[in-house]
Amino acid sequence: MQVTVAGIEPLQGQGLELRMLVKLRVQNPNDTPVNYNGVAVEMNVQGKTFATGVSDADGNVPRFGDAIVTVPVTVSAFRMAGQAVEMIRRGGSGPIAYELKGKLNGSTFNSIRFRTQGEFDLPAPATDRDDRG
Fold first, then answer.
1. How confident is residue 32, by pLDDT bands cut at 50, 70 and 90?
2. Which residues constitute the domain of residue 61?
3. Would residue 30 count as lying in a domain?
4. Does 126 reside within a domain?
5. CATH number at residue 79
6. Does residue 18 register a pLDDT over 80?
7. Which end of the chain, N or C, is less surrounded by CB atoms within 10 Å?
């Protein structure tokens, strides 16, 4: 199974939390469909837990096909603050390492675990220039 983030949309949060709807594209390279009845995800940034989420969604990923699975995730303000402090400590530049791991819950012992990781760069800060000529 190959799982990638297909999109992220904001959700209404409570108090000191940020909520997002994460859309996962799940690709099944096998000759049999994968049925699931629950999803759990954990998003790590720079090796630390950033967001977690669960969903009781059910469905299937067709054989040699793909499907979009949505999971609401929560990020606490304390985790966001910790990540911001860490970025400031590192000078705010360089690649940001991320990891997404989770599982599609199947029947009995047929849960499928997935993990994907990579890096992204923050946009460079804008410079103050006088373009008036």
1. very high
2. 2-121
3. yes
4. no
5. 2.60.40.10
6. yes
7. C
d(CA 51, CA 24): 14
Instruction: Determine the pLDDT at residue 42.
Output: 95
Contact 87, 95 (CB under 8 A): no
Region 105-114: mean pLDDT is 84
Find tokens 């999803």 and name the residue: 39
Look up tokens 């499907």; give the residue.
67
The pair of three-digit structure tokens given for residue 100, joined into one six-digit string: 């997404």
Q: Is residue 33 included in any domain, yes or no?
A: yes
Task: Give the pLDDT confidence score for residue 67 in this predicted structure.
Answer: 97
- Work out how many domains the chain is built from and give that number: 1
Q: What is the pLDDT at residue 100?
A: 92
Instruction: Name 101's bridge partners.
Output: 42, 115
